[in-house]
Amino acid sequence: MKAIWNNTIIAESDATEAIENNHYFPHESIKKEFFKTSKTHSTCPWKGEASYYTIEVDGKQNKDAAWFYPEVSEKAKAIENYVAFWKGVEIKS
């Protein structure tokens, strides 16, 4: 699977986890040069607290377009520290 934004592959992995129509990519599969830590957080009732990244490619930013769970509930262990995308990031196989 590939995550693409602004015509650039920002993550790529054969080991994604699909949950609630989102592909979660292993943290080590993201291209860290495109990811900036955000101060945004949100809470999922069954997964836990999410942290966000702003994606930056060729000077363009996509604020809080990636999220991950640094610590998860027992029910969500499969995606602990995996990264998912939204806000126009394309996921392709």
Automatic annotation (TrEMBL):
Top-level taxon of the source organism: Bacteria
Domain DUF427 span(s) in chain numbering: 1-87
Protein name per the record: DUF427 domain-containing protein
Listed PANTHER family: DUF427 DOMAIN PROTEIN (AFU_ORTHOLOGUE AFUA_3G02220)
InterPro entries: DUF427 (IPR007361), DUF427_sf (IPR038694)
